[in-house]
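Technical annex B. To support the medicinal chemistry partners, we prepared a structural model of the target in complex with NAP, based solely on the information shown next.
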Amino acid sequence: MVLVVAGATGTVGRHVLAGLRDLGVPVRGLSRRPPEPDGWARFSFADPAGWPAAFTGASGLFLVRPPQLARVRDVRPALEHARAAGVRRVVFLSVLGAERVPVLPHRRMERWLDASGMAVTHVRSGNFLQNLVTVHGAEIRDRDELVVPAGSARMSYVDARDVAAVAVCCLVEDGHAGRAYSPTGPDALDHARVAAVLGEVLGRPIRYRPGLLRYGRLARRAGVPAGPVLAGAAVYTLARLGVGARVTDDVRGVLGRQPVDLRAFVESHRSAWVPTAR
Ligand SMILES: NC(=O)c1ccc[n+]([C@@H]2O[C@H](COP(=O)([O-])OP(=O)(O)OC[C@H]3O[C@@H](n4cnc5c(N)ncnc54)[C@H](OP(=O)(O)O)[C@@H]3O)[C@@H](O)[C@H]2O)c1
């Protein structure tokens, strides 16, 4: 039997794939464009032709809902195929606070999965620290600014590698079915504080700019697709309403160690923000 990782090229999925491989577990990564011939299957939620090769022999699935697929009906047919092919265990990458926001695509997905008959674990992640490298990388690197439309709202950022490690445990250990974990970092920070820590570690001032339009414009200019930009705007809007600031002990509870914090993350990713041209 094999474990299957959807979104295996993505922020969390790539670390889930690597973590399972490190454990020596038979694993198959899914991608619309597999980077290697071995250990991968070509897969799209929109193309049934690839589903048999993706799910044959699979017992478990790490499920990422691609940001641009907002409706359950976009992903449900592939999941029904997976279930019919024998997938029994699903670990779903959801978002912190999903249980409080019924209209979120993540929550709709959770509810469908809960009724699916499969053994499901929800991993409701806080905002990824990796967003500071991907979505916000260019503005920090080249403009010395952090543009996040969250006002003074606090958010509990988490390292995607910690989220992936939690997901790996849920896939390979018994006892996690029917449970939900909310991995977060050790504290909730507003973005003035995030910018201050960036500035302290990088040795130059980084300004916090909270504008929504500026955020959308810069992210698009940096090549971030429209789906993730809109999803990010929604997440930051919810943050202003108090969703996303909860701090949990779930990383330590599952992994037995503290989560990575902002300062440690920035120190280990320093090279991502070295200015390209001054
Ligand atoms: N960003 C955050 O801070 C955050 C926090 C909590 C939860 N989340 C949630 O985490 C999930 C992942 O978000 P992300 O921004 O980190 O994206 P990501 O996982 O880095 O990228 C999306 C993944 O989906 C795959 N994909 C895209 N379209 C697909 C399709 N039609 N069929 C199959 N696979 C497809 C891509 O693989 P290929 O291109 O290789 O096919 C890619 O691996 C989202 O549901 C998001 O809401 C994000």
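Notes passed to the chemistry partners:
The CA atoms of residues 91 and 167 lie 7 Å apart.
The chain has a mean pLDDT of 95.
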